Amino acid sequence: MGEPILSQEQPVTAPQPERKQQQRSIVTQQKLLDAALEAFSESGFKGTSTRDIADRAGVHHPLITYHFKNKEQLWRAATDRIFREFNISLVKAMAEVEDTDAKARARAFVHTYVRYARNQPALHKIILQEAGHQSDRLDWLVEHHL
Question: What is the pTM assigned to this prediction?
């Protein structure tokens, strides 16, 4: 017989990516970033294994290289995230202070940092972990965030 004829009532569309799969991927990345921040802030880059991060995140170890290529890229992504979140809170705080009041701006900066560091101690712990010795990560951290 021949090939079936498509009716005009049934348009051909490309398959849509599965939203559940995308959502799981995002959740996995967030779990890895949370676990990485915790591990890197406690033990530093050299003292942290990717297996430890995967265990803390409750995911299979190969997912680290699937999402982040390697430990260095995971460290950078985790560091970017915590500094990005800090910068968002800093911008919000500075928006509430007049540009001409230097003392108020300095106070807002210090208060914002202290409050953020209290809630996210990984911020200053990562700085301290990397500041202990010269490394490419320290250079990257200074260039991108400090």
Answer: 0.78
